[in-house]
Structures are given as structure tokens and as C-alpha cells.
Automatic annotation (TrEMBL):
Name by which UniProt lists this protein: DUF192 domain-containing protein
Organism: Pelagibaculum spongiae
Alphabetical list of InterPro entries matching this protein: DUF192 (IPR003795), Saro_0823-like_sf (IPR038695)
Signal peptide range: none
Source taxonomy: Bacteria, Pseudomonadati, Pseudomonadota, Gammaproteobacteria, Oceanospirillales
Length: 116
């Protein structure tokens, strides 16, 4: 299921309209994540809900992680998250995983989508 069909349900900001996201909101899709993928094309990614921790075990490429709170405001951005690592953002409600470099390429700034 594409995240675009869930945007109104999750009251998402413009950030989620810029990116072409697949929604992972069921146990199996959240558990599988991007495992088995060899990469992501421009502006494509995975939006995992709920999620406050990820791993990149067995991954074949680096990611940018965009951690969101319950109002889809950016809490933190982790750039170039390498394979075989773990990351946690305890206050996060969800995370967007995109190809490494996407955050800088499209100019996502923490303050742009945060309440401050």
C-alpha cells in the first residue's frame, strides 16, 4: 500500500508528499522493512509506523533516517546510516527510510518540518 493513500489518515506534512513512500504499518511489513532490496531510487522510501528503533542488519546500502513524532514533525535526521548498525529515537512514533543522500539532495531541514 502506498503512503499517499494514508496521508490524510496520519495528518502528514508536505514532506510525505515530496517522497514516494511505501507504508509499513502491519507486523510483517514492519519486520521485513527494506530487507532484500538492493537500493532505493530517487525520492522512494519506506515509512514505518509505529517505530522508534531500526536496524540495518543484512542491508546492502546506506539510508537516511527521518524520525517523526506522533504529529509527523521531524525529531531527528540520521544521515548515511550504514549497514549492520542499530538506531533508536525513543520519542519517535515513526521513521522514514530513504536512500543515503536523499535528505541533503532534496533539502530536508530539521527545522523545516519541526515545531521547534
Amino acid at each position: 500500500m502506498q503512503a499517499a493513500s494514508k496521508i490524510d489518515q496520519y495528518n502528514s506534512p508536505d514532506l510525505l508528499q515530496i517522497l514516494d513512500l511505501k507504508l509499513a504499518d502491519k507486523p510483517w511489513s514492519r519486520m521485513k522493512g527494506l530487507l532484500g532490496q538492493t537500493g532505493l531510487t530517487d525520492n522512494k522510501g519506506l515509512w514505518i509506523i509505529p517505530c522508534n528503533s531500526v536496524h540495518s542488519l543484512f542491508m546492502k546500502f546506506s539510508l537516511d533516517l527521518i524520525w517523526l513524532d506522533k504529529n509527523q514533525q521531524i525529531l531527528r535526521i540520521d544521515r548515511d546510516f550504514k549497514p549492520w548498525h542499530f538506531a533508536t529515537c525513543l520519542k519517535a512514533r515513526s521513521v522514514i527510510e530513504v536512500a543515503a543522500g536523499t535528505v541533503d539532495r532534496i533539502g530536508i531541514l530539521h527545522d523545516q518540518y519541526s515545531k521547534g
